[in-house]
Write a structure and sequence with these properties.
The complex is a heterodimer.
Chain A: H1 2-7, H2 10-29, H3 32-57, H4 66-83, H5 87-111, H6 116-135, E1 146-147, H7 165-187, H8 190-200, H9 202-207, H10 212-238, E2 240-241, H11 243-246, H12 249-262, H13 269-291, H14 298-313, H15 318-326
Antiparallel strand pairs in A: 1-2
Helix pairs in contact in A: 3-7, 3-10, 3-12, 3-13, 4-5, 4-10, 5-10, 7-10, 8-10, 12-13, 12-14, 13-14
Chain B: H1 2-33, H2 40-58, H3 62-85, H4 93-115, E1 130-133, E2 136-139, H5 140-162, H6 164-174, H7 176-181, H8 186-208, H9 218-233, H10 238-258, H11 264-278
Antiparallel strand pairs in B: 1-2
Helix pairs in contact in B: 1-5, 1-8, 1-9, 1-10, 2-3, 2-4, 2-8, 2-9, 3-8, 5-6, 5-8, 6-8, 9-10, 9-11, 10-11
The chains are: A mainly alpha, B mainly alpha.
Chain lengths: 333, 289
């Protein structure tokens, strides 16, 4: 952590502190709507970080991260709706279930040498498989969905994740901050360097004595577990869960956009990406509403275009460029 | 009793041949250009809408509309490869993936904006006709579609086997450096291949309209279907695509018959996972050396 702080020059430090202060004080000026947009941004920062660990650092392209969001959300919601177990406790089984799925996928893929496109397809296949399974799972409400009841008397029960917009905003802030901290810590830990070595050249990494299988397994376990926490947040924030909505591939894509646009394998890339993309999407909706052409699908077309343009022009993401032009890093010794 | 199962399997084989033609396009593109066309199913759905519109507007039978649609798709594929995708050849897999995922999202949601989310049926005059063989009932449309799929596939096989251009394309797939050294125009051949791959998917989409109603949401589902088939059959193997298509067609038909139609793709994904683990190169694929 201190290493990250030390690597920044005065200007970098100032910007970071200003961003944190602005986010902390935003509820004082922001409208309810703006607060909901900021909450969404911070949520995408968090899940983006979780995905970034796996793709950006360990180099494993997962296109099925909606699986872990869905599992985390569903486990917590089922335990709450049917058994009255609050999310602060059910977060443990939620993470455990998602990590178990991650472990199975990782074991199958890494043990049997399934890489690249094949690995991405395996993750999609598992997410789709689970989606159809949940369509037929009675305890999860099947295709008809699962609803967390809105109860007036529980509104103040923050320990049960029942609260108003302000509460969820600060919760999302804590999640996002934790996501950035975890990434910063891991990227400078032994494990982080092992991931980079495996990402760049697995054979060479092995020759150096790195257990690539273990490193990749750790990546998928950490990433799936972290994503499941995001799923718990998502479930209790939205209060409705449908298999088609939670596990759909477009969810997986949505969550990988921010790190890709911001910059894979960077600590602040997913943050910058989320702060660019989510507001752009909202502005686009407002614009099309205003022009009277807001058809379903407009936002998605915009996301598709963004993906194509970014990957064609700045495949490494915008953050490395911004950081360079703002000159935020401390010069060499 | 058993003839019911035989009936279901036979229907699955016929559908599977059309699936196979669609997957063949994907396999050809990957086998030569080494780019995974993640917008494959979305192109199939464009072809479905094209066939649907042609039938609705001028009453053109999809079995005939298949030819102009395939030709148009060939041009689209050629131009697309030349203008957009060629720059991504040889770039990291995730970058190619993201480019085509972006294209796929635009196609699906563009169709959603134009045609709306509802499925559009194409009511052929012979839609409910069937052949009676023994005590088995075989849908006429399925037989026609399957025959057409086999004819197109056979034409493609013949092209790769017996023409100079086909041989040149195979040379690019086998040894890119060697192909470039002997003076083959790799860029042009890549564009041709991409065009051929899209022509396959265009023909398959036109045929598909006789078996299923066109809807934007089918795009991602067909992409996954095509990938599942190609991986089961072996990426880059042309015969593998057809074998995989038939296998998936039969597994879908049986799963739909014995369990619930909505669970049929669960069995396909199960099959995919099993193949990935037990024989990652696919049933007909060559072991990587």
């Amino acid at each position: 952590m201190t290493a990250l702080w030390d690597s920044m020059n005065g200007r970098g430090k100032l910007l970071l502190v200003l961003l944190i202060l602005a986010l902390l004080m935003a509820p004082m000026v922001a409208s309810r709507y703006l607060l909901s947009v900021l909450t969404l941004i911070l949520y995408f920062v968090y899940v983006g970080q979780a995905w970034n660990l796996m793709m950006g650092y360990a180099g494993q392209l997962s296109l099925g991260h909606a699986l872990y969001v869905g599992l985390g959300g569903y486990v917590a919601a089922i335990l709450w709706v049917h058994y009255g177990i609050g999310p602060w406790l059910s977060i443990v089984p939620a993470v455990a279930v998602a990590a178990a799925f991650g472990a199975v996928i990782g074991w199958l893929a890494f043990r049997f040498g399934i890489e690249g496109v094949y690995f991405a397809l395996l993750t999609i296949a598992f997410a789709e498989f689970t989606r159809i399974g949940f369509d037929h799972l009675a305890i999860a409400g099947g295709a008809g969905g699962l609803f967390i009841p809105y109860e007036e008397r529980r509104l103040g029960e923050w320990w049960n994740l029942r609260g108003n917009q302000l509460f969820f905003y600060y919760l999302a802030f804590v999640l996002a901050a934790a996501g950035v901290l975890i990434t910063a810590l891991l990227s400078r830990a032994r494990l982080g360097f092992q991931w980079l070595a495996v990402r760049e050249d697995e054979t060479a990494a092995r020759a150096l004595g790195i257990d690539a299988f273990r490193a990749k397994m750790k990546a998928i376990l950490i990433s799936s577990g972290m994503t499941a926490v995001g799923g718990v947040f998502y479930a209790f924030y939205n209060n409705t869960l449908f298999p088609a909505q939670m596990f759909d591939m477009s969810r997986s894509i949505e969550l990988i956009l921010a790190p890709i646009v911001g910059g894979l394998g960077t600590i602040f890339g997913p943050v910058v990406g989320a702060f660019i993309l989510t507001p752009l999407g909202e502005i686009l909706i407002m614009l099309t509403d205003w022009l009277g052409i807001n058809l379903p699908g407009v936002k998605a077309v915009f996301y598709g275009l963004t993906l194509m343009i970014i990957i064609s022009l700045v495949p490494t993401g915008v953050w490395p460029r911004i950081a360079q032009s703002l000159d935020l890093k401390k010069r060499g010794p | 009793m058993w003839s019911i199962y035989l009936n279901v399997i036979l229907q699955g084989v016929l559908t599977g041949l059309v699936y196979g033609l669609m997957a063949l396009g994907l396999s050809v593109i990957f086998g030569v250009v080494r780019v995974v066309n993640f917008a494959h199913g979305e192109f199939a759905v464009i072809a479905m809408y094209a066939a649907f519109l042609l039938f609705k507007a001028i009453g053109l039978d999809p079995l005939i509309a298949m030819a102009p649609i395939a030709a148009a798709f060939f041009v689209v594929g050629f131009v697309l490869q030349r203008s957009l995708i060629n720059a991504f050849v040889g770039r990291p897999e995730h970058e190619q993936f993201i480019l085509l995922v972006g294209l796929a999202i635009i196609i699906t949601n563009g169709l959603l904006m134009i045609f709306g989310p509802d499925a559009q049926p194409t009511q052929l005059p012979y839609a409910f006709d069937s052949y009676l063989i023994g005590d088995m009932i075989i849908d006429k449309v399925r037989v026609y579609a399957a025959i057409a799929a086999v004819v197109v596939s056979a034409a493609l096989f013949a092209f790769f086997r017996h023409t100079r251009t086909g041989t040149a394309i195979r040379a690019c797939a086998d040894n890119l450096t060697g192909a470039a050294v002997i003076g083959l125009n790799v860029k042009r051949l890549y564009a041709l291949t991409f065009g051929l791959g899209l022509a396959c998917v265009g023909a398959a989409g036109a045929l598909m309209v006789t078996l299923a109603d066109a809807a934007p949401s089918l795009g991602p589902a067909y992409t996954l279907l095509a990938f599942t088939i190609v991986i089961i059959g072996g990426l880059g193997s042309m015969s593998g695509a057809l074998v995989g298509g038939v296998l998936i067609g039969v597994s879908e038909a049986l799963a739909g018959f014995m369990f619930a139609p909505s669970m049929k793709s669960m069995f396909s994904f199960g099959l995919l996972i099993a193949v990935l683990v037990l024989r990652p190169q696919g049933l007909m694929g060559k072991k990587p050396t």
